[in-house]
Amino acid sequence: MNISEFLRSSLFCSTEGGLSMMHPGLPPGWAGVVGVVVALLSIRLLATPKAPAEKFRFRWMPSDRRDGALRTVGALGPMVRQILKLALVALFGLTVIAGLFGTPIPERNLATVLTWNVWWAALILSIFFAGSFWCGVCPWNTIAGWLVRRGQTGNAVPNNSLNLRVPKILRNVWPALALLTGLTWLELGAGLPGSPRATAILALLMVVLATVSLAIYERRAFCRYFCPVGRTVGFYSQLAPIELRPVDLEVCERCDTLACYHGTDQIEPCPTHLVMGRLTENTYCTSCGNCVGSCPSKNVNWRLRPHSIEVIKKARPHWDEAWFMLCLLALTGFHGLTMTPLWEKGISSFARIVGDSGKLLPTFTFFLLLSLAVPAIVYFGAVRITYLLTGKTVAFKKLFSSLALMTLPLAFAYHLAHNLSHLVRESDGVLGLLLNPLGTGTFPLTLAEKQDRHLDMLISPELVFALQASLIVFGFWIALKVLHHRYRALFAIKNSAGLTPMVLLAMGFTGFHLWLLMQPMIMRL
User: Fold this and answer.
1) What is the number of other CB atoms lying within 10 angstroms of the CB of residue 344?
2) pTM for this entry
């Protein structure tokens, strides 16, 4: 069977709601190739634990040209960001209006199509190249700033905020994780993608949260502690090939103003309380560029770096951050699982057994919690075995937090591979919706129209499958490099005994992700 026949044979499936369109799963041939590469990489690591970590180097462009290009981007940064902010606020407003007053047909309404089919998928993809750039132009943050600061900039006082310090109990990423889990429940359990009005209300609610937070707490507490999107972007940005850092650390050591942290009369302070001279991680950097403009020595700029070097060598996660990464891995897999025909059959059968009816929210909630618990238990067990095999020489909590970085490339790689399929297969028709965002005079998509959209992809199916397979291999390879470096940094041990449980765990997660990609996936809309 050739690719064309394979695609046509995987177009439809029967669900509780009738006949649904499906994306074809990854062909067995590609899955076999990934499986072989994963096995070989694992054997190589376990057989050569003493081998030094590979040195990463950028050779695609001379360093002087790279630095010159980034300096040019940095110089244009404020102007470009302002233009993008205005454009995104306008698009956000149009999306909300479409959701509130447009057609209730989700595939004909700009709010649902843009939010669930395009924006989230494109956002995750953008992190692979531009890190946390989205946070620097986020419309939620922009609108909140307009409402609270009312055009005032820098350290202007009063700035219409109470400027209270965030309570200690909230100074972590647990609030963001709770909101991320809640959004997952709303999206997949309550069916938000099928309701333009509910999608618009959710968008407005995020603006309200950002505004209230800015009005009560100092700086951008919403961005630092509460925003589920920002924290997801921040953690994934540890894998990005770009960072905002000092040009010369010695200049930062001699600095007596800390303008990057405190801001100036014209430029606001760092929204997430970062000091540039001590910055080693992208996790909480929002790419706002305030430090670039406020530094009196012009010593801050964007620069390229080896992809994923931060998560391999530099990141130092805390306990709450480790749990966020672990739950992020669980939630990405859960997203994929809920879009398979197997999920439709399984949850319906379970609901009948327990007597659940209606929208099956109790059943869905149970499986959501189970999807969070199972990876956590398995990971906890693997770390515990590692802890015992290495003679309890490192505190368990430290070991748990450090090795959790292994889950980040696995989650990111699957997230990219999964969203790639949505983006190239479900973004068709967005330009038409921009011309008719309310969906005036439209009717639901026919099966023929859905089939045409399904086959009229942005790139060829063969390339999609190749990219998905490559991403899974890439994520596993980076996960092994994380394990290798962290293991050697934590233990002065010459054998691979302690590595084995974590490598097997990485293989297990990768195998699950590969199986998910092989399943036909029901389209969102």
Assistant:
1) 18
2) 0.90
